[in-house]
């Protein structure tokens, strides 16, 4: 019969007892002490591997112990001092300790800084966000939790992520839809971004460029970047833009005159309403909604032309605006897409959702120093928005879009064959 020989209620002793004392005093300090002890064990194992057992005589050893020193590693968004061993090679040169190098090079501090700034913690409050003012691990001078230190880390990490983002290979993405939209950050600073939807309905931030205005040159630079990174310009796709003529011009120049372009219906309606008095809003909005819900593109175009004809006498400029770009407003209708898919692709809501995240992320920025700063922040916002993306609601109908785009491309590119008559 097996008996339990451990006395009931016997107190913990040794290291366990000390650990419980640390937990009672401060859990934060206990975690720090446990982490330092674990790191010390790893470093001692590395030193033993290089120098052999302590006080041992090993003719094959390649280094020897050389005392101890103090160094800094990351902890809770800042730095702490840790004692570490030193090792010298047989030639007298310093030998690195792998576990220490890993701990020192791990970019915890940069990721802490970037994460907190993306959720709108200002650099002035960074130290308080990562260290409790009354805690047992104080933020002493040189601990790296100051506003300038946090800012430097954010700049370094966001610049690295921007470079990776703008150089990512796009050739493996089966993109069916590309949305392009602009973000105005100042009187002479505009960023134009692209976001794509693949054949499975997944959304991908693609690229970002800066310019003074949302003109054809800026959009062309964006499209050239996409093509240089592997986006095949011969594959039929649907391009969705906010209505700027520069966008359509650059898209057709890069992807051919047969490119299917859908102008955002929400932007179009908003622009029309802003130029009309309130008493015309309800009737105009009703006609536009009715036209966009029709399955017949010819009937939809007739409705919109009748609306422009009624407004032409009193508001000729608005009537001309309604008719401008009419073909591109009804592209998803002409492609005969299902209604649910049309609602998802008739506007730039996907890009607008991403822009909303970017505005939230950049809310604490009071002054844009230059375009480089804007690119870093906005790219970080696009990457942050990507974490919350969901599949397109009508993703099961994207096969219909693929077939419709191919049919549209074939219809627009196949040249008619001239009939040859033989002489009698």
TrEMBL record:
User: Would you say which domain of life the source belongs to?
Assistant: Bacteria
Q: Does the keyword DNA-binding apply?
A: yes
For this protein, the record's InterPro entries field holds:
Transposase_mutator
Tell me the Pfam families matching this sequence.
Answer: Transposase_mut
Q: What does this protein do?
A: Required for the transposition of the insertion element.
Which family is annotated? Answer: Belongs to the transposase mutator family.
Q: Know the name of this protein?
A: Mutator family transposase
Organism the protein comes from: Bradyrhizobium yuanmingense
């Amino acid at each position: 019969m097996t008996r339990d020989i451990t006395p009931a209620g016997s107190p913990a002793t040794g290291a366990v007892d000390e650990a419980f004392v640390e937990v009672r005093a401060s859990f934060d300090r206990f975690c720090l002490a446990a982490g330092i002890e674990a790191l010390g064990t790893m470093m001692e194992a590395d030193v033993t591997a290089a120098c052999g057992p302590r006080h041992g005589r090993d003719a094959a050893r390649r280094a020897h112990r050389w005392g101890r020193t103090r160094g800094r590693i990351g902890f809770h968004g800042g730095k702490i001092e840790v004692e570490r061993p030193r090792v010298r090679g047989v030639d007298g040169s310093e030998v690195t300790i792998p576990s220490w190098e890993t701990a020192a090079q791990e970019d915890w501090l940069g990721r802490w800084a970037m994460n907190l700034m993306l959720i709108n913690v200002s650099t002035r409050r960074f130290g308080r966000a990562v260290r409790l003012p009354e805690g047992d691990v104080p933020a002493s001078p040189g601990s790296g939790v100051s506003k300038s230190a946090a800012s430097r880390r954010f700049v370094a990490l966001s610049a690295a992520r921007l470079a990776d983002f703008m150089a990512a290979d796009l050739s493996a993405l089966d993109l069916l839809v590309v949305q392009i939209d602009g973000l105005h950050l100042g009187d002479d600073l505009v960023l134009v971004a692209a976001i794509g939807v693949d054949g499975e309905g997944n959304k991908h931030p693609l690229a970002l460029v800066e310019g003074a205005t949302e003109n054809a040159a800026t959009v062309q630079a964006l499209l050239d970047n996409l093509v240089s990174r592997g986006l095949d310009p011969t594959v039929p796709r649907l391009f969705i833009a906010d209505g700027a003529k520069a966008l359509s011009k650059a898209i057709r120049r890069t992807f051919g005159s047969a490119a299917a372009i859908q102008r955002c219906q929400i932007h179009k309606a908003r622009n029309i309403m802003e130029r009309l008095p309130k008493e015309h809003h309800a009737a105009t909005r009703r006609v536009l909604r009715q036209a966009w819900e029709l399955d017949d593109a010819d009937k939809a175009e007739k409705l919109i032309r009748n609306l422009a004809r009624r407004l032409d006498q009193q508001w000729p400029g608005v009537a001309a605006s309604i008719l401008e770009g009419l073909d591109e407003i009804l592209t998803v209708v002409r492609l005969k897409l299902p209604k649910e898919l049309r609602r998802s692709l008739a506007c730039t809501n996907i890009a607008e959702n991403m822009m909303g995240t970017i505005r939230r992320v950049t809310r604490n920025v009071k002054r844009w120093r230059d375009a480089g700063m804007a690119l870093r922040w906005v790219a970080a916002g696009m990457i942050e928005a990507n974490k919350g993306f969901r599949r397109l609601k009508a993703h099961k109908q994207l096969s219909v879009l693929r077939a419709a785009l191919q049919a549209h491309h074939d219809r627009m590119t196949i040249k008619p064959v001239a009939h040859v008559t033989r002489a009698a």
